[in-house]
């Protein structure tokens, strides 16, 4: 039987096309190290890689298998900048800080592509991203955004598309305009997970799967992470579980909320398909965003079903096919070979959450759908903090991230109501 993630529904197309997926042992016995990392997704594996390469004794534990969470199952889009548009960050923080945040994200993009190239990880990179308006009143915002990015943020790769160009590039007339970004692209995320784990292990990081953390204590300048079959004692700890933290650490849980996001993969559409002839990825202007792209072999990978809570839809295929048909009526009966989901960590303002949640313990997550690019780089930034340079991580730590209202008992129902209201607005 093919392996099925215990924490994420469905088997992904990524799992079936990533090639060999090595297994790592479970921790058995106590360990002492410089840094312990809890969570084997992009953030944790990247941090382990950079720490090990710097000579740090690092132990990483993952409850299940690397890539079982969002890192191995996401939409694969890199995007540009932070989750919020640069001009929105400028309005909140001023131009200087907004530019610093944008430049940091651009460095994150370059770092990911360079890391994959240097370490010979074939991540199926394909260039281009279209961001499109599902309502006419949003079109002027996209036009202004392209001008602002070229002018105030020195990013000339975004161009405005009118309705005609948008329809031609999408192969669909369902949108009213948007932008085309030639300075970014999309990847096969599971291949990056597998490759990063390989590089981390080769650098000397001690990697363990099937090893959940049952508690984290910071006392007397030391951190102790307990597991079912051993305790890890360290100088520092990185919590990199994002949406999968549960009740492991209360500060992170108060600021990061899991939302389910679901994707379907069709059969290859064929070389004569009019769908996305340029091969770009797409995201739209809905609050409950739809995101889609074609794979290297011509399949449509379509995400657009979000669930705010812990219950999964019974049939991912039905929901995804319905949304595909809204944009591409000719595909209303297309065969969907894979349907899967995972949980994305969001924050109230949709900005990343990085905090020292107890002495010598930093938590990172809340990438809010922008994590492919940022999480890998945040692992590198964490390694920088351990080796003495916290300045760049501080730029993220100082973002204003309030906790979700309602406390542990009521925050999920309140979020469910609020975000379903936004979903209703998307349709009006």
Give an overview in words.
The protein is built from 12 helices and 16 strands. It is an alpha/beta fold and 428 residues long. Strands 1, 2, 6, 7, 8, 9, 15 and 16 form an 8-stranded mixed β-sheet that branches. An 8-stranded mixed β-sheet has the order 4-5-3-11-12-13-10-14. The chain starts with 12 loop residues before the first helix and ends with a helix. The mean pLDDT is 93. Pfam families: DAO. Residues 34-384 form the FAD dependent oxidoreductase domain. Keywords: Oxidoreductase. Residues 1-24 are annotated as: Disordered.
Approximately how much helix is present in the residues? 25-40%
Total count of helical runs of at least 4 residues: 12
**What overall form do the CA principal axes indicate?**
globular
Strand content: 25-35%
Largest sheet: 8 strands, mixed
Q: What value does the average pLDDT take?
A: 93
The succession of helices and strands, N to C, reads: HEHEHHEHEHEHEEEEHEEEEHEEEHHH
The structural class is alpha/beta
Number of strands: 16
Cα gyration radius (Å): 21 Å
Unreliably modeled segments: none
The span between the termini is: 44 Å
